[in-house]
Amino acid sequence: MFNFKAISHPTGNVIVLTGAGISAESGIPTFRGPEGYWTVGSHVYQPQELATWSMFQRNPEAIWAWYLYRHAVCNRAEPNKGHLALVDLERHFQDRFLLITQNVDGLHRRAGTSDDRLYEIHGNIRYMRCSKQCGAPLTSIPDELSDKARGEPLTSDEAAHLHCIQCGAWTRPHVLWFDEYYDEEHFRFHSSLERAAACSLLIIVGTSGATNLPMQIAITATRAGATLIDINPDENPFSELALQTKNGQHLAGNSSELLPLLVEKLAREVN
Ligand code: NAD
Ligand code: ZN
User: Fold this and answer.
1) Which residues of the chain have pLDDT under 70?
2) Cα of 50 from ligand 2 centre, angstroms
């Protein structure tokens, strides 16, 4: 079993960085799992090819159909014990706590994590914005578009709701695509790295390490002396890095089981 005893009470700030794995047990498929593929027309794509600005420019209807379906899946999903354990952790550490998530599913907010202690560094699938950046504000995806089935094409009615109220261009999902860059305004790029440089414990949950900012956060935090704990059933770049940090560990298992145990241990010590 795991050596929870070796995990010592953090004296400074705690950052939790989550990826698709924490929501897998809420029924939201990860990108690199078996349900990751997607068919558009006669081609089968990996999400890494679909979740791109260049694919959106070529075929906004197909990309919107895919996002409306994923939006419907996220809407139906409920936060699990892993999300709830992080609400508990925030309660104990208050302003010393920050949750950085790559997930666009909104489950951390719905579980009860405070908005001001949550950075959604890849956006949130419930919102859309103007694809021409005309300055129109972010808007929620209209309720009438929240029930799309897998593989169902976009209707002309739906398309009509997906145009900017200010300039008439297509709106786009408020997410960071694989061929786009992080920024501070939408994705808290600089703030994430600043906070990483000043944390003493970094807990990484359910992420494969294939995206850029999470890797930079982990390197920044560990170079500054933070302990790294990685929760993931599989080996990944963070599990190796964890072992190079003081008392760092790879907890190989599911986040809904391991996070409540870890949080209980950390919370017990802070009181
Ligand atoms: P990923 O799909 O690349 O990797 C998921 C990781 O979770 C894997 O390492 C896997 O071993 C691990 N995992 C699987 N089940 C787990 C469990 N029960 N407990 C703990 N870990 C588990 O996901 P990623 O690294 O987050 O990157 C994918 C990108 O796709 C991100 O940009 C993210 O925004 C996006 N995405 C988001 C969602 C979501 O919002 N829920 C879902 C799919 C993809
Ligand atoms: Zn516009």
Assistant:
1) 1-2, 5, 34-38, 41, 269-271
2) 23
3-state secondary structure 209-240: CCCHHHHHHHHHHHHCCCEEEEECCCCCHHHH
Of the residues 71, 83, 108, 122, only one is catalytic, namely: 122
Here the tokens at position 220 are: 């920044």
Q: What is the pLDDT of residues 28-41, one digit of tens each?
A: 999 877 666 667 76
Phi-psi region of 123 (alpha: psi -120 to 50; beta: other; left: phi over 0): left
Tell me, yes or no, if 122 is annotated catalytic: yes
203-248 pLDDT per residue, tens: 999 999 888 899 999 999 999 999 999 999 999 999 999 999 999 9
**Which residue among 127, 207, 254, 262 is best mutated to probe the pocket of ligand 1, counting the most ligand atoms within 8 A of its Cβ?**
207
Q: How far is the CA of 137 from the centre of ligand 2 (A)?
A: 9
User: 42 and 169 in contact (C-beta within 8 Å)?
Assistant: no
**How many angstroms separate the CA atoms of 219 and 43, rounded?**
37
